[in-house]
Write a structure and sequence with these properties.
The structure is a homodimer. Chain A has helices at about 35-45, 50-70, 75-90, 100-115, 120-150, 175-185, 200-210, 225-230, 255-265, 295-300, 340-350, and strands at about 5-10, 15-20, 30-35, 155-160, 190-195, 215-220, 235-240, 245, 250-255, 270-275, 280, 300, 305, 315, 320, 330, 335. By secondary structure, chain A is an alpha/beta fold. Chain A folds into two domains: about 5-140, translation initiation factor eif-2b, domain 1 (Four Helix Bundle (Hemerythrin (Met), subunit A), Up-down Bundle), CATH 1.20.120.420; about 145-350, Translation initiation factor eif-2b, domain 2 (Rossmann fold). Chain A is globular and about 65 Å long. Strand 6 of chain A pairs parallel with strand 14 (about 315) of chain B.
């Protein structure tokens, strides 16, 4: 399976973090090497890496790179204040995916505890924590896959949107993790992948990942989803999430909300697959989720080719919010919840991100 | 306003038919010249010209070009049999738009009547009929605009899909004709234009046409329509049609059906604007409408740029069918009908295409 983010130890120059450049897949396999927190912030903002869990993991590695930049600083106070500056740089990259802030908080807990330690120790501890976040994520995704696959019949065609796969996570994927889980359980699974304009994560990443795994996939434009549903071709819609509010409202890639409405109209179950860290108890409803707007160029150009008139006005929100009432169930590493059960669950338990 | 199809008389070589090449607009203004029925058939199939009414008009000019090719044939029987061959070539280009078959039937009525006439007379009569089809179309579109604009409030934001504008017709447009009619009536109209993958008629043609007319237009991807509806930004959805069945079910550009479902869910009126020739009494319901599937390359490539993995399976229907129950009203040159009224109307009157 394709890897999203990993480290490489260089003898004299410390640790580098490598990313596969998701902007040019699948036509080219290009790798981006980050040696500083700023390089990682740029990579996240410019979407070298994307997908809520992968953004969180990359942010954690960005913090570890930051600590490595500070090895000449011994004073704990200076270290802490520099780390907080770096945290702000990374936090400012993308506003919607809550996993980014969750990962930064988890890293902060470590750097606050070890500020008194030797510089090299601080760096090692933070790289270890980032690596743990990545490995935990893969483990969580396998659990999501294992819980989620029970929702699918022995033979099923699943529609998915954007890429909630290995490339969007530490590995294995969330929505695609459920598909992989079903395939591993011996089920016959076919996938329809929305191409997911404007960034084409479905065409470029989901179609690529599933083809590599020999899982049958048919590519459609986003506008074809309604028709394939009406034709009775789809047994379930499964998507990932960038942030789930306490009431179950879910922010995910633009186009998700429309799919959820269409699924309801056609009587098709609509599932959100995401690690528990995507649920933000501090966000009461979808109305509080900040929605990132991106450059008009993503819509007016395809690569270098202009596809719209000069100077045209463009609206380009990167995400939309699906109200909880359209969501059949949320599949997490702790089990499968209806949106209502989720809010009860949040009331009773302390969560990793509270 | 931009022109779609027109004739040019050459002193020694007869009449040419010129088309603006809609495949490369708006980045380039290229003109395609057709001198034979085959060249026109190729232009229709390859989407140099598209849009149901414009396809009908172009087909009519293709027939006139065919008659011009037959000026060495005096014998009426040979003329008739050659014309029928040419008719089959043009009829085979695109299966969904009924205006194509309607225009061919209208031309056939003329060529059958005048088969005994002198060759030059036959050619002139058929060019005159094609020109009349074009001029009638513009006149009808102005009536559609005038009836349709009464449905819009003084200040309205309209969502449209694909291009049902001047470029899709003889001129003025159907869905965009309603928008133009409202602007001419002094109403404040803003437009959201879906880009309309895979062929991008919204981004390339609708955004271009409306900008040229200084009508405010914002371009969105198809997947953003649900969000702008949920934000309360849209007062009406207006689209064109490629074929309307007797019960009001409507085939139009892929993505239309999903928009209609979304409009219903958000309580937004959903209008179809089309000349009466788009209504096919011979098609009882949407299930009888043949849906053209086009090349996978339209989805896997953007221009020359590959945007999906090699060899990926693609489903690329060019149209979908919106059941009548999602359609608030059908706007024609004879007035505004609910889909149910339309079927009553069809029962009582003889129609132009029966």
């Amino acid at each position: 399976m394709v890897e999203t983010v990993w480290t490489k130890k260089k003898d004299n120059e410390g640790v580098e973090v490598h990313l596969i450049d998701q902007r040019v897949l699948p036509s080219r396999e290009v790798f981006v090497v980050c040696r500083t927190h700023q390089e990682m912030a740029d990579a996240i903002r410019d979407m070298v890496v994307r997908g809520a869990p992968a953004i969180g993991i990359s942010a954690a590695f960005g913090i570890a790179l930051g600590a490595q930049e500070l090895e000449s600083i011994v004073d704990p106070k200076s270290f802490l204040s520099e780390m907080e500056k770096m945290e702000r740089v990374i936090a400012a990259t993308r506003p919607t995916a809550v996993n980014l802030f969750w990962a930064l908080a988890r890293m902060k807990k470590i750097w606050a505890e070890i500020a008194d330690e030797a510089p090299r120790y601080r760096t090692d501890a933070l790289f270890l924590e980032a690596q743990a976040i990545k490995e935990d994520d893969i483990e969580r995704n396998r659990k999501i896959g294992s819980f989620g696959q029970t929702l699918l019949p022995e033979s099923a065609t699943v529609l998915t949107h954007c890429n909630a796969g290995a490339l969007a996570t530490g590995g294995y994927g969330t929505a695609l993790g459920v598909i992989r889980g079903a395939v591993e359980a011996g089920k016959k699974i076919k996938v329809y992948a929305d191409e997911t304009r404007p960034y084409l994560q479905g065409a470029r990443l989901t179609a690529y990942e599933l083809s590599e795994d020999n899982i049958p996939v048919t590519l459609i434009t986003d506008s074809m989803a309604a028709m394939v549903m009406a034709q009775g071709k789809i047994n379930a819609v499964i998507v990932g999430a960038d942030r789930i509010a306490a009431n179950g409202d879910t922010a995910n890639k633009i186009g998700t909300y429309g799919l959820a409405v269409l699924a309801k109209e056609h009587g098709i179950p609509f599932y959100v697959a995401a690690p528990f860290s995507t649920i933000d108890p501090a966000t009461p409803t979808g109305r509080s989720i900040p929605i990132e707007e991106r450059s008009s160029r993503e819509v007016t150009h395809s690569g270098e080719v202009q596809i719209a008139p000069d100077g045209i006005s463009v609206y380009n929100p990167a995400f939309d919010v699906t109200p909880a009432r359209y969501i059949t169930a949320i599949i997490t590493e702790k089990g499968v919840f209806s949106p209502e059960d989720l809010s009860h669950h949040l009331g009773q338990e302390s969560l990793p991100n509270t």
